[in-house]
Amino acid sequence: MTAGPDDGERVAPTKRGLSRRALLLGAAGGGLAVGAAAGVGGATIARAVQGGDEEIIDLTRSFPFYDQAHQAGIQTPPQRYTVFMTFDLASDSRQDLQVLLARWSGAIAQLMAGRTIGQVQPARADAVAPDTGEALDLAPAGLTVTVGLGPGVFDHRFGLASRRPAHLRPLPELPSDKLQDGLSGGDLSIQACADDPQVAYHAVRDLARMAQPTASTRWTVLGFGRASAGTGQKTPRNLLGFKDGTRNIVEESDFQRFVWVDDDVAWTRGGSYQVVRKIQMNIENWDSDAIGDQQKVFGRGKVEGEPLTGRAEHDTPDFAKKNAQGELVIPDTSHVALAAHENNGGVKILRRGYNYTDGINQFGLLDAGLLFVSYQNDPAHFVTLQSRLGRSDRLNEYISHIGSGLFFVPPAPRRGGYLAEKLF
Ligand code: HEM
Q1: Please, what sign has the CA dihedral across residues 383, 280, 23, 304?
Q2: How many domains is the chain partitioned into structurally?
Q3: Does 96 lie in the same domain as 40?
Q4: Containing domain of residue 5, as a range?
Q5: How far is the CA of 200 from the centre of ligand 1 (A)?
Q6: Same domain, yes or no, for 410 and 379?
Q7: Which atom of ligand 1 is nearest to the CA of 277?
């Protein structure tokens, strides 16, 4: 599909634009909208205008990999798409693990800069190309690749048990868990996020290929649905139609306090723990639920996202307020009442999830949900929240936690070094 500034929208003179209408046409035509934007003769800006609100995706945007305090993809404003994949280590050689992390680091630096990881067309016709080529004509699209180390890296195999990050133990069984082995665990994780799904997929595909034979793929989720962030950004919606992310960590001081590890083990400082949950939604049940009930499930209004005790989305919820019948206006079993920091000893986590769909299940029902991803400096914070939610959240009628993983995300490497280098 080609698109240009020809449908009445105002666009910057030097950039080619794509209106919301064109985006939707792109999607209906079988293509993914932002990918279509990137493919238009080097067009790099996708733009959506609706009701006077404007959202701009700059596909030329790129993030640095080396010499940062933290890996990108955590504090980075959420891009629109993600590909999350975990891996099992097949080798028990510490050196193989080091080589893999070093090779991944070099490749990720190239990918995030919008480059290929080697030749797509080697000079010799009998040579295998290091880069598979499907992102060749695409812009960096804000790609971030975030690598995590699972508990298995610190088991008996690699002699690293004494170097285990303080809180990296498999998560305990939590109330309402319906975890499937094939959607859980892993020794390594890769979270690739980008504003073009093909850019994110290419990155994970080529890193998975590079991991052979040291590590093999275990489970994966393709996610979508986040708006690009920025001043005046609108809160994105989950597949239950509610704004998701209204009360999240945004202040730098909260990142320092709740997200980044700051202990005396040098190699972990500036890292974070990544909790991943694949949460399936019973979409048809939810869609047949009355709006009043849906709002009580979350404790918020559906259209504006306001707390049931307030008017505007960012009003502070009043968890003690009662109605004329003496009932709490925000039910104490609503999702936000159970998860709010006010009701959990001040605990906060950074949520950075995406919607996902796996199509249609064996019963002909929509198979979709939330790839919940949270970052925190102690996974116990997630466990505290999910223990309460799993026991009494009204939302449990409509969701199932089917996949789970816990990984330690080391800090970013310095130029010339590689991920987790100081671990070895
Ligand atoms: C499919 C599963 C889930 C859905 C659809 C969902 C949806 C939502 C929505 C709509 C909100 C209100 C808007 C906001 O403040 O962002 C919210 C808030 C929140 N959720 Fe979830 N959520 C899910 C799972 C979880 C899980 C597993 C956790 C953590 C264990 C969690 C933790 C939180 C927290 C901490 C808040 C902010 C509460 C506040 O301070 O008011 N959510 N969620």
Answers
A1: negative
A2: 2
A3: no
A4: 1-60
A5: 25
A6: yes
A7: 27
